[in-house]
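Office hours follow-up: a student asked to see two folded examples consecutively, so here they are.
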Amino acid sequence: MNASNPMRLALSHYLRTLRERDEFDRLLPELLTQMGYVPLVKPKAGVRQFGVDFPAAGRSPADGVDELLLFVIKQGDIGRRTWTGDPNAVRESMDEIIDVWLASHVPPEYKDHRKVIVVATTGDLGQEVQPNWAGFAARHPQLRFEFWGADKVSDLVEAHLLNEHLFDGQDRADLRKALVMGADSDYRFEHLCRLMLRQLGVTPDGRLGEEGVQQTVPALLKALRRVHLAALVCSHWADGESERRQALWVMERTLLWCFHRVVLQSLQERQDVRDVIRDIWRSYLQAASRYYDAVAAHIRVKDGLSGYTREGAEYSVLLLEQVGLLASIGLSAALVEPGQDDAWRARSSEFATALAAMLRNHEAVASPRLDAQVIDICLALVLFIQTGQHDLARWWTAEITGRLNFVFRLDRMFPVGSDSLDDLIELEVHGSDEFKGLMRRHSWLLATMGSWCVMQGQDDVYQNLAESYAKEYPDLGSQLWHPTADWTAKWYFGPAHQDSGSTEAPYTLPASAQALRDRIAQFNATGRLRWEENSPALAMGLWPLDFIACRHFRTPVPASMWYYLDSKPPHGKEEATGPASPLL
């Protein structure tokens, strides 16, 4: 294999990370289809197959002879332990193919085809068993034997799944650039994004382009699979470079843009389309799991993430980013439809507890410095509510609201309304009165935390906030954004609030919590807020996509997630002082 070719290196690395079941055995039939073969059955775990994981028939691209390929699929390197000595070992599988499958299971129409036993694995054939392989083949001259290791399969994938017929010159060039730059933590895979837009027939502003209009459903399905494969290669390459945040970002973007493309033509009800989207969803879950594994140990240690940055303001930004990532991963488990990905769904409380541990161990996380961090805060609160941890939600709401009130009264270290790190630094270094006023002109956080307080029955916390707002910083521009009926047009493609929705502004905080609850009840009565009832993701059983999109594209979490809360604590317990149980 050419070590100077980053695409082949990435493919080989990617293949070596695949599991035998549900990953490698899904890739092989698709590869063979592109090579001109017809897979006769799908690989099935637990079904007796007499050594054959799946057969495929076709014409050899090497000599044009019709042949029947009989696949034995394995994971990792083939050494002495995997060669023989177990009913599922390579030699035993090949013996069973010869003794049983070839003797009685060959379909009549393929009797005259050349028979080829192919051992396909995500690793290599160990040097210690190469003589055994050669000897076995020599004892059965009537058959052909091929070994497809990671390097061989990566060459075939590049030649047939990533070839010029599927990816044109520009796409291949962009994919190579994405691989070269993927280890840069600040790179946002612009080249991969351009490839996706071209493949999906979508314009840079998210509309269906001319190519997309002309795309048939079968052509779109192929495009979705190609985009998925390209994303997997980039994601695994970044993961191999210890950039798991980058790897997760790639799978988020791919999942959201592919779903956006499907929604553009209302194809999400088609089963074949659903199957492809669910394949991409599972790849997202794998990237999310790897990311969680990488940070889990750090978040359970006091200030365990402090080694990643030095500056106080930058530290707060990093922490809230982790909150959003962990919360969206938790919601991907908590909100998935029952019966789908149940093992992942069962981990929702684990993710919520891990997030709570992070909040306890990193006090700075309750001091947002950018107004848009309200998105990450809301995702965390929604996760706590959805997993039944109402005390945690009230505790953290009180923590953030108290600190927010303090910094606005102090007129220092408050979250800047522009969401620009440069503006944050400017405020820290110079902080003129004029600039401070500019940075306080808009605030989602104030309205959001105030309304969370009243809907959770935290009247005392709200009262302090409302009184300070009225007396000490009434000039602060408080507002709240709501999606409108056309919200799905851009939700899965970019920041939806920039082109759609309506804003409650100014969002005044009345003196009493009950007055705000009454106002919210009147707003609810209009029926404008139940955005999730029209969610194409929810209808498909993948409601988490709506929240992943909020974090990924920095779209505010719709207020209906707390405007309809029924989580008021018993009378006399308006405030929670901390989590109800130990989190560490």
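And the second, which I mentioned at the end of office hours:
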Amino acid sequence: MWFYLVFALLGGVQAVEPIIACYYNLSPPANEVDPTLCTHYLLISYTTITGNGMFDPPSVEEARNFSIIKERNPKAKLMLCVTASNPHWSMMVSTPLKMQNFADASAQYMKQHGFDGIDLDWEFPTWSSDAKKSDRNLLTILLKTLRFTYGDRFLLTMATSGPPTITRKAYDVSSFNKYCDFINVMNYDFHVFSWTNPVVGFNAPLKPMSREYSIIGEMNSMSSLASYSTLGLWSNKTVFGIPVYNLGFRLVNYYWNWPYAPAEGEVNTFTSYPSTCNITKETHANGIVYREYWNNAAASPYIVGNDKVWLTTENPRSTAAKAQFAKDSDCAGIMLFQISTDDNRGICGEGKNPLIKAAKKAFLGK
């Protein structure tokens, strides 16, 4: 109780050292991952919530494989990212007892395996069609319960929305300052293909383009950061998310290939950096040619093929630009999603993990 009172009086925990947080799905194997690449490694896809709201952790073997990173670098922080469907999240926060059981079980598991904290990836309380209106307030109670249970022994973080339209509805941002160590703002997936909005667009545009207004004008990282600031999130709690993956669209007409051009579907065959780093230089079958372009406002490249493929991509220039913006905005750190889609083997000719390293260098200034 003494700790909790001091914690409340201080207004929550605050990050001190620059954060380079990297999501990781055990690919490549942990013994092939640079254990000094990131300060925090967040294991995703292996921790969830059951239908009755119980903590469902990685298997012993999965935990053991993840632990190899800390064996190779004891300073690395290893965290479990909890992902689940909205109904499962809603079930877990439905009663104080379920929340406390989740807190106790997760704390016991982390203690047993030597992990350093929990990252909550709830997409998205109150906002999503299968979420409940009560989720927003219950999330605050969950964070309070977890912090009281974890004390200062375990880290508590959240992965939160990039689009301000979601942020304003889904969260009581003041609770992040009180109970979380830091917040991983997912500044990506601003434009994905849907039949309700069948156009191409940038995955992670840094700033709005000149003709983007209203809600569309908010679909960028600068507006995302501004919305969190307006809602009261401290800059030393804010970790700026940067994607290390591509999204693909199929154009209606190859000659209509500008941002917001009509699309007739999505393309899922070019998701990693190695799949696109040399695509414009390579010879392709059937006379297919790809060309890369750069958009200054988005600080992002995009690739257009005469097979009607339109790719919103990242490269070292773009990840560095976004990390520099995060640094200039006094963010506590940057988050990269995720290690597996960077060039882990150096096949692009830029060394290993060029996207993450470019972002890291820009943010740290070295």
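Two things to take away from it. Residues 96-113 form the longest helix (18 residues). The CA atoms of residues 22 and 336 lie 5 Å apart.
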